[in-house]
Amino acid sequence: MPKYLCIRRSQPRQTGTGGKPSPAQMEEMYAKFNAWKAKFQQNIVDLGGKLGSGGKVLTSDGATDGPFVEAKEVVGGFMILSAKDVEEAMEIARQCPGVVTPGSSLEIREISTP
Fold first, then answer.
1. Where are the domains of the chain?
2. pLDDT at residue number 5
3. Architecture of domain 3-11+24-52+61-111
4. Cβ contacts of residue 88 below 8 Å, gap of 6+?
5. pLDDT interval class at 17 (50, 70, 90)
6. Which of 6, 16, 59, 88 is most buried as measured by Cβ atoms within 10 A of its Cβ?
7. Which residues does the UniProt record annotate as the domain YCII-related (predicted)?
């Protein structure tokens, strides 16, 4: 079955914006997430995770600190799914709570293997 890399992009968070969810909201979110995870356990190859804020950008000229703070979008996380086609991968990802929120997007690309 083909595998798909899901790359979560979002706009850089502005300092002081947005509030933290309450403990009850967090509990509800984890219950939904765990239900999604159980439903699609056969399709989740690597749950991935949230990426740290720093890193390096490697080019043919060398390496620099990154990602760039002036970027309009940042890659915030990833996961790898298996699905029969990209439509099924999109549906699995769409049902994951919190993956696509206002101001964010999910890029889904098939991983080509020789």
1. 3-11+24-52+61-111
2. 96
3. 2-Layer Sandwich (3.30)
4. 43
5. low
6. 6
7. 24-110
